[in-house]
Amino acid sequence: MKKLLLSLMLLAGSSARLLAQDHLLWMQQPALSPDGKWIAFEYKGNIFKVASAGGTATPLTINSAYNGYPIWSHDSKTLAFASDRYGNFDVYTMPADGGTATRLTYSSDKDIPYDFSADNQKVYFGTDRHDIYTSVRFPGNAYFNKLYVVPVKGGRCFMVNSAGTEYVHFNKAGDKFIYQDRKGYEDPWRKHHTSAVTRDIWVYDMPKKTYTKLSTYVGEDREPVWGEGDAFYYLSERNGNQNLYRASLSDVNAITQLTTFAKDPVRNLSRSDNGTLAFTQCGELYTMKDGQQPQKVNIGLSADFNGDQVQNMPVRGDATEIAVSPNGKEVAFIYRGEIFVTSAEGNLTKRITNTPYQERMIQFSPDGRSLLYSVENAQSWDIYKTSIANRNEPYFFAATTLNTEPVVATNKDEFQGMYSPDGKKVAYLEERNVVKVIDLATKKAVTVIPEGINYSYADGDQYFTWSPDSHYLLAQSSEGAYSRSEVALMKADGNGQRINLTESGFNDRHPQWGMNGKMMYWMSDKEGMKNLARGAQTDIYAMFFDQAAWDRFQLSKEDLDIRKQEEKRDSMSRSATLTTPANAKTPAGVPAYAFQPNLKNLDNRTVRITLGAASIADNVMSKDGEKMYYLAKYDKGYDLWVVMPRTHEMKVLANLNAPGGGLELSNDGKALFVLAGSNIMKVNTDDGKITPVHINSTMDLDAAGERAYIFEHTWKQVPKKFFDPNLQGTDWNYYHTTYAKFLPHINNNYDFQVLLSEFLGELNGSHTGGRYSPVFPNADETGALGLLYDQTKGGNGLVVEDVITGGPFDVARTKMKKGYVIDKIDGVAITDDFDWAKLLNHKADKYTLISFHDPKTGTPYQENVKPVRPRFESSVLMYNRWTHLMEKMVDSLSHGEIGYVHVQSMNDPSFRVTFDKVLGRNYDKKALIVDTRFNGGGWLHDELTTFLGGKLYFQLRPQGHKTIGGESLNKWDKPSCVLMSEGNYSDAFMFPYAYKELGLGKLIGMPVAGTGTAVWWENQIDRTIVFGIPMVSSWGMGETHATENHQLEPDIKVQNNYNQVLNGEDQQLEAAVKEMLQQVKGQ
């Protein structure tokens, strides 16, 4: 408890000290005014302005939305910025001295301003909208920012460039713009990696329509701005830490380093017309002139601008775990890392813990008067208990006084405590992999599963449970292997050997005791349908440790009735024989009940309980073993099922259609408590009646405290989980100290996500960084018509350039065609002085009247269609359009001889598509192109290489007829190649690596960064925040290093030219066709 109180004091102290500070830190996105007098920047979610020499900053925006990314007009009179006021980032303008903001863009895409036009009448911005309609590049809107422009007075937005440009700045003549590219997925705040995916600096010549690469370093080169003449400034890691450099178009190799910070990168570069440069470094804002030393800009505020006060908020649901009291009258649950207890049948809820830390893994004590839980305070996870202090108060939800004390609290991580049924011991995890048991009276702990047996991937993936007599434990065990799961039995006193009960090549998990310890039941994928990538459907099995119990379980309903009658007749004599006399004493040292499990011939006492495999979330058996309740998904969502093993009947007890959940059975067996998604309900076991468990409470949300905890949690978690125990040489404690001091200067999750990513980015690992997914219940959403338009031209109407297959207009009755012009949407005309995206806001799935005409004949049409959601259009319709284009191109280029398939992800659905297309429409092709470009990963490398590595070892000839192919029937046994790009990631690195190692064919395209690690993305107590830790590395056979950070080179290197790929020519695909035709030449 002392550790907990001390940590709370430290947090409170840091917040208190902030109020007395007048020096701002963690300013983001600074922008120097062209006249050099002012700097605009984002701080705590709003835009401020300060004199370039420093001083007191003036807020220009004051609202609860995030306002950032300011840029200046060239006359220094107007600011453009981005704000998420309507659920996505739109472009706004406002006077440079403050005033009313004017919204310019209305699409629900992300729009970020970059520059003003030379006459200050337009704002250029980057957006993640669709590619130009002629493009044959992968439709990765998130990868490739499109450059658009919008008038400052508002109106229609126009596409300027579709190449994929970030941090765009135009030269003074307005005929060129400089930018950084993006080639694929990687956290933008990752540091020190060198690979083909890192950013480069380019310049685009608008009259000549040419792209010229300006940077040559293999690592990060980014954030370019123009200097005098053809000079430009940019940030680079070419000499280690990211610093400021200068070069020129006339001599890109004459590079001058201008800053020499040894640690902590330079970010957010800006430049004024008088040559002053501004940037941030280690949370500070600097200015400098070329050739001079950087000067720190000291900035203060005239008033408190915290914007992050403690807020009282209702608690109505969204539970992440539950525990039911032994009497079934209370339900404890976790909400946002805090413990609450609510009455099972009333409307009373009480908050049990009140800290910015995370509490989890809750359990009631056997007497129901204590709650056992895990808490991460101070330096480690510990196990605590909170008890009702007043003996006259029976319930937590009505208790007036609670006592809290540690149960297991050392400098090691201990969590997932579980009381023994007799309440005398607690089993728990130490350092995630070791299972221990502590005697609560003596405080002595014994190890029951030592280090080296289990390997935890994600917290909560280890499982163990007590026998009813408190003498044994059942546990999920990897038995020293990775990705293996068995059920093991062990004595709770640490003596004896651990016994593998299942000894199966299939996955066995979640064992539970049944029928008073005479049997166990568990889940196995032994007979379930297998996922083509990873995972499978499961069944529930039972194994009996008692022959008599097994014999009784095997009886039919009729035979059991006969047996019960016999037992009734013999009950008097049996009672006389078995009942212990009242005055009898148990010999010293011998427990009154010491069940000895019969471990012989277990295979002969094992039975499948469920009648069909499914995706099973949780299960529990009735006390008498007559019913098995389980949450299963056979179709769309999880429902509550019950199966009667004796009669082999199964039925749905309650229709829930839940995304998942957990089950607990009341001690009297009359009710099931279900956590369905995030809702708690009580279900009668006899009739399936559902009664919601009401939650009615409030909590004071200390968002700053939460962020401080998440940061500390990240710092502590990484050394325990990161794939390299040495953290790749990172001075982790230094960076903890460095970044911790910025926390008081952050009041929103956008800036906090950047801080997390910067912190984790110091590790130079893939699969890491923070992620923030804000929730806006009423956010703008631009309905999508399934059409591609000419976004480069103005005038009345909107020219349709393609009708996307599968979209709203892909129906038999439509008159819509390519080249037609949309005139009105719901009766409102489309003109240049109006952003037509407004007309489709919130129109998804709603009938919308589209008026259009044939420009050749003038014939008008009107059609009512239902727009689809924009994400569906981007991720499904546009992707399908692209794959069809690729298939047609390969077929045309190869004259029908070469097959093509794109593997979208390394998962089951993608493999099914691959299998279907390869052995379907491409079965008779001579060779195959396997395109993995921009595949973000998963886990499919072994299955895919096996599939493509088929060898024809004999033919099958019905009645002597020669057929196509032969054994192996379900594999590709002809030549193939793999297309890859800088956008491959994770398992999309491991697959081409394995493909090359196995000698299956050539790799064609661009190098792939070494990202072959497995990650745990952990949800935080603020569910909008997650962060990733790459935990498992892959090593090539015979290699002395992991594949991480070791780039995979193609056999044939081909880089797509911007102009060609945007105009319908895929050079990488052409090279693959050429190579495959060469290989099958003469066949």
UniProtKB/TrEMBL annotation:
UniProt entry keywords in alphabetical sequence: Cytoplasm, Hydrolase, Protease, Serine protease, Signal
Protein's UniProt name: Tricorn protease homolog
Active site: 767 (charge relay system), 986 (nucleophile), 1044 (charge relay system)
Function of the protein: Degrades oligopeptides.
This protein's record includes keyword Protease: yes
SMART domains assigned: TSPc
GO CC aspect terms: cytoplasm
Any one of the GO BP annotations: proteolysis
Location (main, coarse): cytoplasm
Signal peptide (residue range): 1-20
EC class: hydrolase
Domain Tail specific protease span(s) in chain numbering: 860-1055
UniProt GO MF annotations: serine-type peptidase activity
Site, as annotated: Transition state stabilizer: 987
Matching InterPro entries: 6-blade_b-propeller_TolB-like (IPR011042), ClpP/crotonase-like_dom_sf (IPR029045), PDZ_sf (IPR036034), Tail-specific_protease (IPR005151), Tricorn_C1 (IPR028204), Tricorn_protease (IPR012393), WD40 (IPR011659)
Family, per entry: Belongs to the peptidase S41B family.
Subcellular location: Cytoplasm
EC number: 3.4.21.-
Database matches in Pfam families: PD40, Peptidase_S41, Tricorn_C1, Tricorn_N
